[in-house]
Design a protein that fits this description.
408 residues, alpha+beta, SH3 type barrels, endopeptidase fold (from Nostoc punctiforme), 6-stranded antiparallel sheet, 10 helices, globular
């Protein structure tokens, strides 16, 4: 009897924020002075509790089915060994892909609780040019007198060598934490609600960001469940399901801030990688003013870089979601913000991208706000992104903002 193994999708962990049904008050922002990099959005009302509940049920069903199958194969004999062998082969294949994608001989991984400063020269007093958060990867170019010269993403500088995992420890860690990423091969790329060019455009991806792959291989069974749970008749009106199912091998599902969308594999490269360092200019950390008249707001926000993301959380140290993060940062400066991202959007004054200043809030979403971030200057934001990355720095236009809001 031929046995079929149920493959269950891993839940994208926690949704990026608590969403109100109130639409954003600002219209889509047209970027003038800064390069528009775009991004991905989706109504969280389609994905919030329902996705988590659905995935939990699927996981439970898979575990039960696997338990039943194991019992049968043990009675028949030999089946359990075959299944274990297949799983081991798949694990080795994934590990080999990771080894090919990473320079394992020169690999370093940031072994810190929050973040590690990357400096221009090997000195504690040297200018800070970037930051590596926990588990960020780098290539070690050389090591001398306790300092490692590293290259990570677009950052090339020096870090204290004692804060890096190296050698076998780094390799073992990489095999556990490396994730599959989609690297966009064009300046901007459309992503869609479903894996079909007939589906509505979700938004656009930027070539300046790597995006987490939620599912590389899509199946008809998975898409049937996905559509039944998350799509309306309107969403399916222009879709030829037979044609879409026949082309599934050319599409992948991505997860950005735990929101799901589909992208054509023709325009992305899929590879396993570690998160990389981000470029930071020292003057940002010493920010003396912002649009909201809050001296030091960037320096304060930076203290929490690398801290965990928790859906519904409000603790800057132990876990917060995106709106809890911006609310907590502004609370420090005596400014009261509403709890949800959509309410924060409604409570702020719209400004254009040509007028953006440090301290402004960037709001993202598909028609209505589902995510918020704090602008720190030089085209960057800091935000509580997702459970994988926690509080991180991104390009301000990794997603197309629905609104840029000024608190005062």
């Amino acid at each position: 009897m031929k046995k079929h193994t149920m493959k269950v999708a891993a839940l994208g962990l926690a949704i990026a924020t608590t969403v109100s049904a109130i639409p954003a008050t600002g219209r889509a922002v047209k970027n003038i002075q800064e390069k528009p990099l775009a991004g991905i959005t989706l109504s969280l009302e389609q994905f919030c509790d329902s996705v988590m509940e659905d995935q939990a049920k699927e996981q439970a069903a898979a575990q039960e089915a696997e338990g039943q199958k194991t019992t049968v194969t043990q009675v028949q004999g030999g089946g359990t060994g075959q299944a274990a062998g297949a799983a081991q082969a798949q694990k080795k294949e994934t590990e080999e892909k990771i080894r090919l994608n990473l320079n394992m001989d020169k690999l370093g991984i940031a072994n810190v609780k929050n973040y590690l400063n990357v400096r221009k020269k090997p000195s504690e007093s040297a200018k800070i040019i970037g930051k590596m958060t926990r588990n960020n990867g780098c290539n070690i170019l050389s090591t001398k007198k306790g300092w490692a010269k590293i290259e990570s993403g677009k950052v090339r500088g020096y870090v204290k060598a004692s804060y890096l995992l190296t050698g076998k420890a780094a390799q073992d860690k990489a095999l556990k934490i490396a994730t599959q990423k989609a690297v966009v091969k064009t300046q901007t790329l459309n992503v869609r609600y479903l894996p079909s060019t007939d589906a509505r455009i979700y938004d656009q991806l930027s070539e300046d960001e790597d995006y987490t792959v939620e599912r590389e291989n899509l199946s008809k069974d998975y898409m049937d469940k996905f559509i039944a749970k998350h799509c309306s008749r309107k969403d399916m009106k222009s879709i030829d399901k037979n044609s879409m199912y026949g082309d599934l091998s050319n599409w992948a599902m991505l997860s950005i801030d735990n929101e799901k969308m589909f992208v054509s594999k023709d325009f992305v490269s899929l590879k396993y990688s570690l998160n990389k360092a981000v470029t930071i200019k020292e003057e940002q950390n010493k920010s003396s003013s912002s649009s909201s008249g809050t001296p030091g707001i960037v320096a304060y926000a930076m203290q929490f870089l690398g801290n965990p993301y928790v859906w519904g959380g409000t603790s800057l140290t132990h876990g917060t979601d995106c709106s809890g993060f911006t609310q907590g940062i502004y609370r420090k400066f005596g400014v009261s913000l509403p709890r949800t991202s959509s309410a924060q959007a409604a409570a702020t004054r719209s400004v254009s991208s040509s007028q953006v200043q440090v301290g402004d809030l960037f709001f993202y979403g598909s028609g209505r706000v589902s995510h918020v971030a704090l602008y720190i200057g030089n085209g960057q934001i800091i935000h509580a992104s997702n459970h994988r990355d926690g509080i991180k720095i991104s390009s301000a236009y990794y997603r197309k903002p629905l609104k840029i809001g000024r608190v005062r």
